[in-house]
Amino acid sequence: MSRLAATFARARAEGRGALIPFVEAFDPDRDTTAALLAGLPAAGADVIEVGMPFSDPMADGPTIQRAGQRALKAGATLAGTLDLVRAFRVGNDVTPVVLMGYFNPILSYGVARFCTDAAAAGVDGLIVVDLPPEESEELDGPARAAGLDMIRLVAPTTGPERLPFVLAGAGGFVYYVSITGITGTRTATEAHLAEAIPRLRAATALPIAVGFGVRTPEQAATVVRHADAAVVASALIDTIADRLDAEGRPRPGTVEAVLDQVRALARAVRTARAPAAA
Questions:
Q1: Is 60 a residue of the active site?
Q2: pTM exceeding the 0.85 threshold for the entire prediction
Q3: What does the pLDDT average to over 11-37?
Q4: Annotated catalytic residue, options 29, 46, 60, 117
């Protein structure tokens, strides 16, 4: 059983949802990302999503765009991102790591080489935002050959006739983009989730994670009352950005501030389905 499958099975057996925090590799520097990766599992992260910095992140809102710019300024590369995962795996062979980003850096790196190196580093799955199923054959084959799950994005605008096509060959979990638009701008309502998630469950047996607009513990709890996992990204990146000094360096306590935020999110996610007290 893969790390992703085992993690979601464990959460299901415990009757709870899962938390997937996002960090942008090298934001604002390599050491900060390495410290966050090391601390996230104990803070309550079930799966860790790592952003691959790219100069033209079309699906991302201003918060993650700025994080990517800081990361590139700090020297982020795709090889450096894989090195971060490799270092994380020295101390943790249990928590799944998913890379999220865009196809151009993977293409520049070399698709087959990237998939082989990512799997060897300890990556479990890939989310490639700008690669629709019609155009993903070049990546799908090498990824599957390397044992990487291709995690598909489904949007509110994905119609019933297209949904089976999008989900064909999907692995790990389905990432439901709960809003139309860019990351970190709005939040889906509970009524929307109550309508959308059953539609997805009827089309796939994979776990469903909800992202794009989940910022607070309350919102994360609402998500996992309907879906299997909540993805939180921009809110954590904002915490980092708010603690940078005039030179763009993280002030003391930045890592712990983010981990405290993750602890609060994890508590909400893990108790969201608990029966209300009489």
A1: yes
A2: yes
A3: 98
A4: 60
What would the mean pLDDT of 138-153 be, rounded to a whole number? 97
Confirm whether 218 is a catalytic residue: no
| Catalytic-labelled residue, pool 27, 29, 49, 140 | 49
Packing angle, helices 30-43 and 78-91, rounded to 10: 40
Which tokens is 102 given? 């865009």
User: What domains can you pick out in the chain, each with its CATH number?
Assistant: 3-271 (3.20.20.70)
